[in-house]
Write a structure and sequence with these properties.
The chain is globular and about 60 Å long. Strand 3, helix 5 and strand 4 form a beta-alpha-beta unit. A six-stranded parallel beta sheet has the order 3-4-2-1-5-6, sandwiched between helices. The longest helix has 24 residues. It is α/β, with parallel strands linked by helices and 251 residues long. The protein has eight helices and six strands. Helices cover 44% and strands 14% of the residues. The chain binds 3-methylbut-3-enyl trihydrogen diphosphate (IPE) (2 copies) and magnesium ion. One 3-methylbut-3-enyl trihydrogen diphosphate (IPE) binds next to helix 2.
């Protein structure tokens, strides 16, 4: 947990000058409900407020030269929340994508999704598809949204794909190693996250990118997602720059 001392945070240019900017940052955006509860307002207000934090996370990623930003937006398990909340979240997702697509385009942001897209209501799928199409070809930042996402499901999906490929192949055998397996995940072709941020203090992965975070650096803050701002992100990156990544080696 990183105590925040406002005013002592290095800016994006200073962090860039130090080198070692994470290529891929993943964020578990948690704490919207608690943000609302603290104020005695409906949970959905917390989700709505989280939009500003998303905008800022995208902006900071661009300023820092982060190549990929993956946001845990909605988990497969989140379908088990009360219908009102689920419907509200879907509505926010559609509205946000529709309203932000212009700015995302101007910022050079490309969109990609991971997760069980087929679970989403048709109209949400359409908005996601349209935004993805509009932003196709942009190269500054890849924004990857995890929607109806489950790390375990993703792994099982990869296993299923490999088995069906093996069945189609003469002889029925295929090569199974880490590289070929990773090519069957939703994140195929995307490097693993270097830095995983979780807001609101929970020390767990909640079924997020289970395969991909094997050697990611973890950074947890007590700050609730709607309160997450530029300075929090910059602090996370400054801390990341001080980490010694060893990948099991001694050097
Ligand atoms: C994260 O905030 C947003 C989603 C999971 C969609 P929560 O809604 O989980 O907020 P808390 O954890 O209850 O505070
Ligand atoms: C993880 O947060 C999912 C998202 C941020 C979308 P949750 O609030 O659903 O996770 P738990 O229930 O605290 O583990
Ligand atoms: Mg939560």
């Amino acid at each position: 947990m990183s105590p925040m001392k406002p005013g002592r945070v290095l800016n994006a240019e200073q962090l860039k000058a130090r080198g070692r900017i994470p290529r891929h940052v993943a964020i578990i955006m948690d704490g919207n409900g608690r943000w609302a509860a603290k104020r005695g307002v409906p949970r959905l207000w917390g989700h709505r407020e989280g939009r500003k934090s998303v905008r800022e996370a995208v902006e900071v990623s661009i300023d820092l030269g982060v190549e990929i930003l993956t946001l845990y937006t909605f988990s497969k398990e989140n379908w088990d929340r009360p219908k009102r909340e689920v419907t509200g979240l879907m509505r926010f997702l559609m509205r946000t994508l529709r309203e932000e697509v212009g700015d995302l385009d101007r910022g050079g942001v490309r969109l990609r999704t991971i997760g069980r897209l087929q679970d989403l209501p048709t109209e949400v799928r359409k908005v996601v598809r349209d935004a993805t199409k509009t932003l196709d070809g942009n190269r500054t930042l890849l924004l990857q949204l995890a929607l109806s996402y489950s790390g375990r499901e993703e792994i099982l999906g990869a296993v299923r794909k490999m088995i069906s490929e093996a069945k189609e192949k003469k002889g029925g055998s295929i090569r199974i190693d880490e590289r070929s397996f990773a090519r069957h995940l939703d994140t195929a072709g995307i490097p693993d996250p270097d830095l995983l941020i979780r807001t609101s203090g929970e020390m767990r992965l909640s079924n997020f990118l289970l395969w991909q975070v094997a050697y990611s650096e973890l950074w947890v803050t007590d700050t609730l997602w709607p309160d997450f701002r530029r300075r929090h992100y910059l602090t996370a990156v400054a801390d990341y720059q001080k980490r010694e990544r060893r990948f099991g080696r001694t050097d």
